[in-house]
Amino acid sequence: MGDINNNSAFDYENLFHNNILPHGKIGITEDFLHRFTDLIFKHLVKANDRKEKVIDFTHPHKLEADFNENFQIEKDPLSLEKLMVDCQRVMDLSVKTAHPRMFNQLFSGCDLVSMVAAWVTAGCNSSMYTHEMAPAFNLIENLTLQKMGKMCGWDEECDGLFNPGGSISNLYAVQTALHYHFPQTKDNGLFGMPRLVMFISAHSHYSMSRAAAILGMGTESLKKVPVDSQGKFIPEKLEEMVLEAKQKGEVPFFVCCTAGTTVLGAYDPIEPTLEICKKYNMWCHIDAAWGGACLLSEKHKGLMKGVERADSVTWNPHKLMGALIQCSAFLVKRKGILASCNKMNASYLFQKDKMYDIKYDTGDKTIQCGRNIDAFKCWLMWRAKGDSGIEAQIDQLWHCAALLYSECKRRDAFEMVMENPECTNVCFWYVPPSLQHLDRKSPEFMEKINAVAPKIKERMMLKGSMMIGYQPLDDKPNFFRMVFANQATKDEDVYFLCDEIERLGQDL
Amino acid sequence: MGDINNNSAFDYENLFHNNILPHGKIGITEDFLHRFTDLIFKHLVKANDRKEKVIDFTHPHKLEADFNENFQIEKDPLSLEKLMVDCQRVMDLSVKTAHPRMFNQLFSGCDLVSMVAAWVTAGCNSSMYTHEMAPAFNLIENLTLQKMGKMCGWDEECDGLFNPGGSISNLYAVQTALHYHFPQTKDNGLFGMPRLVMFISAHSHYSMSRAAAILGMGTESLKKVPVDSQGKFIPEKLEEMVLEAKQKGEVPFFVCCTAGTTVLGAYDPIEPTLEICKKYNMWCHIDAAWGGACLLSEKHKGLMKGVERADSVTWNPHKLMGALIQCSAFLVKRKGILASCNKMNASYLFQKDKMYDIKYDTGDKTIQCGRNIDAFKCWLMWRAKGDSGIEAQIDQLWHCAALLYSECKRRDAFEMVMENPECTNVCFWYVPPSLQHLDRKSPEFMEKINAVAPKIKERMMLKGSMMIGYQPLDDKPNFFRMVFANQATKDEDVYFLCDEIERLGQDL
Known about the structure:
The structure is a homodimer of 508-residue chains.
Chain A: H1 26-47, H2 60-70, H3 80-93, E1 102-103, H4 112-124, H5 135-151, E2 159-163, H6 166-181, H7 185-188, E3 196-201, H8 207-214, E4 222-225, H9 235-247, E5 251-258, H10 270-279, E6 283-287, E7 312-315, E8 328-332, H11 337-342, H12 375-410, E9 414-416, E10 425-430, H13 443-463, E11 467-473, E12 476-483, H14 491-505
Parallel strand pairs in A: 1-11, 3-4, 3-5, 5-6, 6-7
Antiparallel strand pairs in A: 2-8, 7-8, 9-10, 10-12, 11-12
């Protein structure tokens, strides 16, 4: 293990936690922190190297047996050297999310400015609830939220929070709408209420179902509006379904337009939806967790036309904008509604006789108590790049998607699941030579093509050359969902991806 | 600003985000990371220095005006130098939570092993949902949860999750109990159900009220059991209230014992509560977010006798154990119940035809989708110290509390709110000389003593010498709540705290 510490004057095999601050020496502490920085730096250099594997895959049961033997928490302390070895091992086993060919999720890359922001917040080890405990971070959160509100075209100051993920932001959306329409439910609950119903795209994120279940309405309160061939929900169907629900005595109160669906990247039509919401007195939420960053691009912001009149928006800077996970904003137009919805008057935390203006305390607005400092990761990165830098990055991601789309059209073995995608999602089947002759609608083809993506995925995982997601959708068998979210990805990676799929799948 | 970069060969004033990875040079990246490490290291050295201020307080409206002018996100990129200056400023403004005299919250200190673990997870920039994306971290989470389950005396493998804070863990507790007793509500909701009710201590954390509101039951579903002079709820009262509810046609299903209440640090009686829960078929949850770490101490684990028979436990390693914020575990005995409760079958994320055993994917168990890697901060720290190191740390915190208690008893100007505290909370009034002659029960005394703690708090904030919380409770006027959670705190800090309160308050 000399390799890990070849720069160090200290014998970490014989140093322990009490040799660093708060009990140990400053000099050792300084060196210890820099040794960890080296470990992480080397991991990042590897991750940015196209010759390196994206993942070094081990089957979980094998890894579990190994961890059970070697990674248990023990009775006695371990040396600082051992901690470094552990962390090196953990990093080696982890997916290199910064790798330009990591396409598996709706996030990718490791923005280093955002990363050092996360290091700073770790070093400050604080929580967002009060100005007293996080003066700078609370103000920075508000600056960032207001900036995002402005990008939505909202004129007035908005309300909002950074939350642990888009699912929680969507939960806030439904909860806030419920509170706006039925404030008495905060105290009385839903017992004795008529069935409340909400409307979402059939392709919306599953967090909306979870929100319905968590909030006590149940998944049956969720009505899924059918989508057209471009994956967008059909406003006329929405209105029909609202009327149908009303006839049954149900009470519609909430509609969610997805701005960038998870699989196809579709943007639901916001403007006609707003009209329907106005007509039937329903809350209009935009789930732009994935696609919201188009608002930063002059070229692409038209995709969300109408957002300026929506009631609330979910938008995750950790997705297309590239901030470190987790970084999800919930924005809501009505100032004060979050506190009204969540305030519980905890006198030990939010004293009314504080020495400062307590409107700056944010804890009463949340469903949490302590809250991670997530806004800072977005703010520092955005400051580093400026609007112009983020715009260039967003346009580059859309460019990669357009390039992949034309490349898929050019190659015989690739078939599109959907023509002319709007976001950076490009969905396609790879049809191996052995299946080319089959009728595309035949049961034999459907069955065989369904097995192709999982097999190619397995091969790419074992080889480590790249990572792409696949899934079925509606009546469509398994297909690849390519998404571009990594600022390190270049044209050469798009060509590589097509070539690599052909290499991995041609014998299937 | 030469000061920030006096070790560097690079001219950061003329370097920007695209000069570091993924677009820039490796050498600059390496140096950039080490410069940030230096900034954070220096912040930590300051924070560990008793001569430094705990906080450099600025009123929020002043800071807001300053930030509005200087901290806006701009159109153009900022230099890497400017980012360092920004971060330096933010750290200077932040509470030094690592300071041995930061007593304001139920967390304190900055464990450096836990901190580098957070740096590593930032460098890996991943999310917990699948084995595919976080192989090592998912297994490590499970190892840590099982270790905590064992400390609870649970023989079998348990289920559980690390969550963004104790409030969310408590939300899981109520949600899981609800699902266990009324699984149909996941789909049907609470419409048409009789009123479900839950029982908690009158001194329980406000997250239980929030949970009732969020889950659609409303705060009226929450029945607060009165406490005795030691702040523990009274089991006989609990049983009376259960019977009363049943007579009204309400349906009791959940009881929460708090193990370490927020203000007084009381441990509710678990064993008699278990009997009542068994008798009336109610779920027994232990909210040990604050006090759970007593389980690691041979001396103090008796405080939670009976936990081995509870249904679920909330336990935050970021509190008494000292892991970095946020680090909160929800443990539940019934294996599989979390997935049953939260599964939504998202085919794009949790494919059934994956190449590996999908029981290792954790995403279907949560109310989130992406989830921060919190367990690692606990695991690495615990490995570093071993059970024995954590035990010594816990015993030291209890020792400080005992010392403060005896010091308060010894000094004339200090009056206890509660005798013989069980946890590390020590609650007291400081009675300035001018109020010593007043009758303790007189309205004049009550009014005047109520103003003392806020005034002393203001003075200590402006001086920056320490931070302690205060609050009223029931009919008791504002008092100080001292809590020990910081491994850096020593006997000398206990004496300092008493002396400092006397210095700050003697003229009031």
